[in-house]
Amino acid sequence: MSRLMSYEWMTKYTPQEEWIEGGGKLIWLALFFTELGAGLFFVSIFFKNPLGMLLGWFICLLLGGGSFLLHMGKPLRSFRSILKPQTSWISRGVIFLTLFGAIGAVEIFLTYLAPNLDLLLLHVVMCIFCILVAIYAGILMSYVRAIPLWDTGLLPITYLVAGLWGGAELLLGINLLTGVPIERIELWIKVLLPSFALVLALYLISVTSSSTTGLTSVKRIVSGDLAIHFYLGVVIIGLVFPVTVVVYSISVSATLVGSPLFLAAIVCGLIGDLTMRYCIMKGALYSPLI
Amino acid sequence: MARWGMVIDAKKCIGCWACTMACIEEHFLPPNILWNRVLIGESGKYPSVVKEMYPVLCNHCKDAVCVEVCPTGATFKREDGIVVIDYDKCMGCRYCLIACPYQQRTPYKDDKAEYFPGQGLTQFEILGKEIYPFQTGTVVKCSFCVERIEEGQKRGLKPGVDRDATPACVNICPVQARIFGDLDNPYSNVAKLIKERKGYQMHPEFGTDPSVYYLD
Question: What CATH topology corresponds to B4-215?
Fold first, then answer.
């Protein structure tokens, strides 16, 4: 889509720019990092990997939360953002993130300090907060009725699956680099990767039937100015290459597949996730007013 | 309590942009910020093309989505239905701006912007910074000239009837395409016009119940 002339503003499909152009890119990164961090923490709980939990905590709060703060026009007033959880998803998200950070810090601390302690209740609570952190941004966006590309219940699910898939990938990378066996986490990857592809496809298909603006947004992504990002970044780098590596690892044996190949697939998967989020942010259109 | 609203007669509008200019003048709006715009479209096919003018501004919706999504309470609805922003509370997350289906909010990013770049601020701009000290990093929008309404009411004037208590864009309109009044009063000028001429809201499907109605 070529840049709109000022007289075409809201008389034609008008792109959402505030959360993707210039400093708005920080929101795109914030959503990616918070969900990736929460996904990594979630998967690490299941695999009892304290390093993964610690890394997930840092990615979520420092990179994700930090990007959120940097994007704000008045970051010193961010403490006010917890004031309206009854109606605002940003308020709810900040509360989820704060509790994730506080309870997660306790859990990491106890896991390192007393590895034999039974932390089942804490694990369950943290799993819930990981899901809430990973899903809230999708809900926050799907609440925007004015943008049909976002206004669907499948967006939060897509983001949740993407967060878990990214987290599982990162944990696979951590295991590869630290010499931990990868068979079990590889099973997660085998389930999450096709799930991610399926949910993404369902999401895009569902938007096409929502409205003409939704259809135009999807067309912009799959055959318009974002098509290069979508096919190269999401489909080829983010899905085809990791799927090829996974299929190869099934046909031989996970242990026979070299670490560099797995690590390359992980990096490609994360690039695909990031590009998918870019396309969803950039492809958002408002319906013309007249 | 009244619920202030506006009726815009799209048939009368001549697209002169006087409302836009009056708004800039009234609120000393900095460059690149417009609280009032006129959207110009076309309908029909040659040789029967009709040019359509739709002045747009904040709709001060009854179920305003910007009020719902604001995490700090900076955007709130007054008892008289006017949606206003407390700039001291706004943290600049811009969720309201994203969520507004009418796209009537603008981020105030650059307090150094000049109407005549490189030539310094004009007296108009200097005075504006004193009277309306917008804060960089916050979001701004039309306030239905709430300060005029409040001051007018204190003096016993009636918004929509007395010029000093009526929004500037309504006063300036040379063809009287804009009418201001109390939507909740069935005998008010706006309520009568909406009833008689089947006034409609822009995109009611968003479910925000705008306080700005249009007549065709």
Answer: Alpha-Beta Plaits (3.30.70)
Q: Which tens digits make up the pLDDT trace of B133-161?
A: 899 999 999 999 999 999 999 999 999 99
Find residues 128-167 of chain B whose CB sits inside 8 Å of chain A.
135-139
Chain A contact for B204, CB < 8 A? no
Q: What percent of chain A has pLDDT over 90?
A: 78
Smallest CA-to-CA distance from B141 within B102, B171, B112, B178 is with B102
B15 shares contact with chain A (CB less than 8 Å): no
Choose the closest CB to A80 out of B41, B72, B97: B72
Superfamily of domain A8-286: Formate dehydrogenase/DMSO reductase domain (1.20.1630.10)
**Bridge partner list, B7:** B179, B213
User: Which residues make beta-bridge pairs with B43?
Assistant: B50
The two tokens of residue A38 are: 């929460």
Would you call A70 an interface residue with chain B, using a CB distance cutoff of 8 Å?
Answer: no
Residues shown for chain A: 290
Gyration radius from chain A CA atoms = 20
Question: With 0-12 CB in 10 A as exposed, 13-18 as middle and 19+ as buried, what is A43?
Answer: buried
**What residue ranges do the domains of chain B occupy?**
4-215
Tell me whether B39 touches chain A (CB under 8 Å): yes
pLDDT band at B85 (very low <50, low <70, confident <90, very high): very high
Calpha distance A185→A42 (Å, rounded): 12
Instruction: Answer for the pair B94, B16: CB distance below 8 angstroms, yes or no.
Output: no
Q: Are A193 and A243 in contact (CB under 8 A)?
A: yes
**Overall residue count recorded for chain B in this entry:** 216
Q: Rounded CA gap, A119 and A116, in Å?
A: 9
| Residue A190, pLDDT score | 84
Boundaries of every domain in chain A: 8-286
Nearest to A80 among B39, B69, B91 (CB): B91
Nearest-by-Cβ selection for B92 from A19, A73, A94: A73
One-letter amino acid at A35 equals E
Q: DSSP characters for A226-279?
A: THHIIIIIIIIIIIIHHHHHHHHHHHS-GGGS-HHHHHHHHHHHHHHHHHHHHH
Cβ contacts (< 8 Å) between A7 and chain B: which residues? 40
Cα distances (angstroms) measured from residue B31 to each of A14, A16, A72, A214: 21, 21, 22, 33
Measured between CA atoms, the residue of chain A closest to residue B88 is A77
User: So what's the pLDDT on residue A56?
Assistant: 97
Q: Give the start-end residues of each E strand in B13-87.
A: 37-43, 50-56, 75-77, 83-85
| Residue tagged 């993964």 (tokens) | A52
